[in-house]
Amino acid sequence: MTKVLIVEDHISMRESLTAALTASGEFEIIGEVSNADYALDFCKRLHPDMILMDVCTEGGASGLKAVEAIRKNDTEIKIIVMTAFDEITYIPRAKAAGANGFVYKSKSLNYFLEVAREVMAGGTSFPKPKTIPVPKGEAPLTDREMEVLRLMCKHMTNKEIAQELFISENTVKYHKMNMLGKTGFSKAVDLAFYMISNGWINPLY
């Protein structure tokens, strides 16, 4: 039976997942934690086969950072990231961190079970990444441009973004110029505000 650790700060969601997974007869919930910062310690102590990891957890702890930390410690454990938000960078960031799957919480519990089974069978399961709508004829934003945009939305300066991504400030400016050209905005701050106000980027995670 697959041993599962649930990292989720909403009690109702934990209860729903526990009920569905347990009822299947294939999964055993061996632990629950509401703060992703403690997930690695729980893994070391409980040795789960699979983790259901929320992106945004108690105390502002990032599930994506927890995935990265767990993956550095254990390459075999299966990790499925889940979220209630439509933040467009979550899926590529979850992949980069080492997740095996990604599920939006709006999906049914049966869908969660399907993804869990697929991941435990050695596969991966990720929805098609969301993209920023751009004028006809323009190329979508690249992964690097999206990363720069995410950090812009955190109100980071060019210098801070450059240090975070290990690139030069001129490269940051180049990416910003490209993004403005593709999206039709005249100022980077306006693009960042648009992304945040429409829920495309969550600056907190």
Automatic annotation (TrEMBL):
What name does the UniProt record give this protein?
Stage 0 sporulation protein A homolog
Q: Which residues carry this modification: 4-aspartylphosphate?
A: D54
- Annotated Response regulatory domain residues: 3-120
The UniProt entry, under InterPro entries, shows: CheY-like_superfamily, NreC/VraR/RcsB-like_REC, Sig_transdc_resp-reg_C-effctor, Sig_transdc_resp-reg_receiver, Tscrpt_reg_LuxR_C, WalR-like, WH-like_DNA-bd_sf
Q: Which organism is it from?
A: Anaerotignum lactatifermentans
Q: Does the keyword Iron apply?
A: no
Q: Which UniProt keywords apply?
A: DNA-binding, Phosphoprotein, Transcription, Transcription regulation
Q: What does this protein do?
A: May play the central regulatory role in sporulation. It may be an element of the effector pathway responsible for the activation of sporulation genes in response to nutritional stress. Spo0A may act in concert with spo0H (a sigma factor) to control the expression of some genes that are critical to the sporulation process.
One of the protein's GO biological processes:
regulation of DNA-templated transcription
Q: Which residues form the HTH luxR-type domain?
A: 134-199
PROSITE patterns linked: HTH_LUXR_2, RESPONSE_REGULATORY
* UniProt cross-references to PANTHER family, sorted A to Z: TWO-COMPONENT RESPONSE REGULATOR
Q: Name one GO molecular function term.
A: DNA binding
Answer whether the UniProt record assigns the keyword Phosphoprotein to this protein: yes
Which SMART domains does its entry note?
HTH_LUXR, REC
Query: Which one Pfam family would you cite for this protein?
Result: GerE
